[in-house]
Design goal:
It contains 24 helices and 17 strands. By secondary structure, the protein is of the alpha+beta class. Bound molecules: iron/sulfur cluster. The site of iron/sulfur cluster has 11 residues, from loops.
């Protein structure tokens, strides 16, 4: 058996029953692994209408066939569940080393069912599974939990845990591993918290079988060369991390400021990757077998910590009107410690600031704590209150859509399907806006990173403001991304690698006969099953939309001045390309062609 161990670990958290089941390899190959396989199991085993925080929801932790292999960035895993934030399928991807270690335990996936009566953690060492009390860990920060569990189970054990945000069922809660790597989006940490599961410790000794080691060496060498020669993966990301994007996106007039009220920040450089390198960078912080090493490690006032991604710099920075890099670094560190999704946490604060600016949130409600755009004292304290649901933080913990809805202005939430949008204003990047609107997990840039062709010119430069061809690019990027996520690789490899490269890597590991075309086809299958889950969960096709501001209010200034997003002109072609009805529903015919009927 190559690439897969062929084993599923099914754990009932209530009864503490453990079963090792056989993974059907035909199903595994059809959905590749990770995101695809997890969604297939969710579709088969969980009623999409289930309350996401009830014991009936399941939490799938799924590796890909390349996880734990000698492939570039081959250490990733996905958490797949129903999202309490969006009501859609949630599939959140994380790097670091935990995913590879789970694979070394001899399992392709873990299915976590029901709910423990008391806080517990799991200790998995190959075929030994222990249920341990986590009463002494409940309430503790991610760093403390990780240190304590490594002390208890050895420095080589890898720890995945939730922080207080997950325990308190914040809909913005992440699942953390290695302290600073996150399965961040869609509230997956709240699902883990709802099951009273604090952490999973893994330590394994099972190598992943490789079909053709010599072929793998050759494909690896070729992939590595492409990654090193590519300007983004060989230079931009290794030098500045994803923070290299601050100035690039700002100069393109697509850098949202003050909750997307503007899209250009003359002071953006103060919180850029270049400034972070100059003043705070200590070293790079790479994931398992990663030749790109975009992760940052910084020092603030003598304390070392993980550095923020571009999205975080923006969310707590310009989107909140803040240009104090030190304060943003601290907010990022607190999100890691508390187990919060930095994108949703920062942008929910930005939405709250606009509500306050309009005097919809009254002064007495925030008890003297600053909540204005640009106030550096606003971000760290509110981040903590958000995780602990203290005072007004209880409302923030519900995310920006529910927050704005409480004050009668849901239109001020810059979200899609109730999940907050990331750091690209789609009024200045039309294809990315179509991708946001149609994303199966709500507002998200990494379901299809159209920034690559529209801004970075990879694999070719296309006009960011044009409409022609954008439906094609959105679909192609969404489908390819679904396959990369499912294989167990980092999406950032796609700046340098194409579908044929992924096919070659998977074939060398698994002995399959993928081509570039079948990689796209598998991704399309995954995209469609995700859409079916959402439809059955009650998320209507009319949710493929953007916030009113982005459709009607022209960008007031900067390089994209005067633009709005033209979603209505793009959606019909997108649905047609997908073979869906004009109303955005997959047809029986298309589902049958994809092997989903
Ligand atoms: S590119 Fe960055 S996020 Fe991706 S695997 Fe490497 S270090 Fe991790």
């Amino acid at each position: 058996m190559y690439g897969y161990h062929g084993k599923i670990l099914r754990i009932n958290l209530k009864t503490q029953e453990v079963k090792v089941e056989t993974l059907d390899l035909d199903t595994a190959k059809k959905f590749i692994g990770g995101r695809g396989l997890g969604t297939k199991f969710m579709m088969d085993e969980v009623d999409p209408k289930v309350d996401a925080l009830s014991p009936e929801n399941k939490l799938m932790v799924v590796t890909g066939p390349l996880t734990g292999t000698a492939t570039p960035t081959g250490g990733r895993y996905m958490v797949v569940t129903k999202s309490p934030l969006t009501g859609t399928i949630a599939s959140s991807n994380s790097g670091g080393f935990w995913g590879a270690e789970l694979k070394f335990c001899g399992y392709d996936m873990i299915i976590l069912e029901d709910k423990s009566e008391e806080p517990i953690y799991l200790n998995i060492v190959d075929d030994k599974i222990e249920f341990k009390s986590a009463k002494h860990l409940w309430g503790k920060l991610v760093g403390e939990v990780t240190d304590e569990l490594q002390e208890a189970h050895g420095a080589k054990a890898r720890v995945m845990t939730i922080g207080p945000a997950g325990e308190n069922l914040s809909l913005l809660a992440a699942i953390m591993n290695e302290k600073d790597r996150a399965a961040g989006r869609s509230g997956v940490g709240a699902v883990m918290g709802s099951k009273n599961l604090k952490a999973i410790v893994v330590k394994g000794s099972n190598k992943v079988g490789i079909h053709d080691p010599e072929a793998l060496k050759a494909v690896f060498k070729d992939s590595l060369k492409k990654i090193r020669e590519n300007g983004v993966t060989g230079e931009g990301l290794p030098t500045y991390g994803t923070a290299v994007l601050v100035n690039i996106i700002n100069e393109n007039g697509a850098y949202p400021v003050n909750n997307f009220q503007e899209s250009y920040d003359p002071e953006a450089d103060k919180i850029s990757g270049e400034s972070m390198k100059e003043d705070y960078l200590v070293r790079k912080n790479p994931c398992y077998r990663c030749p790109i090493a975009c992760g940052r490690w910084v020092e603030v006032d003598g304390k070392q910590m993980a550095g923020p991604e571009y999205e975080t710099l923006w969310a707590f920075g310009s989107d909140c009107g803040i240009r104090d890099l030190k304060e943003v670094l601290l907010a990022n560190d607190w999100c890691n410690e508390l187990g919060l999704d930095t994108i949703s946490a920062g942008t929910t604060l930005a939405a709250a600031m606009e509500l306050r600016e309009l005097d919809l949130v009254k002064a007495e409600e925030i008890e003297g704590q600053p909540l204005e755009f640009g106030n550096v004292n606003a971000i760290v304290e509110w981040t903590k209150k958000m995780a602990y649901r203290e005072g007004f933080g209880d409302k923030l913990a519900e995310g920006s859509y529910r927050l704005c809805d409480m004050y009668g202005r849901p239109d001020l939430s810059m979200s899609v399907k109730k999940q907050e949008l990331p750091a690209y204003d789609p009024r200045g990047i039309q294809g990315q806006g179509l991708q946001y609107a149609t994303s199966n997990r709500g507002g998200c840039h990494v379901r299809g990173y159209l920034i690559s062709p529209e801004i970075l010119g990879l694999p070719e430069k296309i006009d960011k403001n044009a409409l022609d061809g954008k439906a094609f690019w959105a679909k192609a990027f969404q489908d390819l991304t679904a396959s990369i996520d499912s294989a167990g690789l980092c999406l950032f490899t796609s700046f340098a690698l194409g579908a044929d490269d992924y096919a070659a890597l998977i074939n060398a590991v698994c002995g399959t006969d993928h081509t570039g075309d079948t990689i796209f086809a598998a991704g399309e299958r995954i995209w469609n099953i995700e859409k079916m889950f959402n439809l059955e969960s009650g998320v209507a096709p009319s949710e493929d939309k953007l916030p009113r501001r982005l459709l009607e209010d022209a960008i007031p200034d900067g390089p994209s001045k005067g633009q709005v997003h033209q979603l209505d002109k793009l959606l019909p072609e997108y649905y047609e390309l997908r073979g869906w009805t004009k109303g955005g529903i997959p047809t029986d015919e298309r589902l049958a062609e994809l092997g989903l009927k």
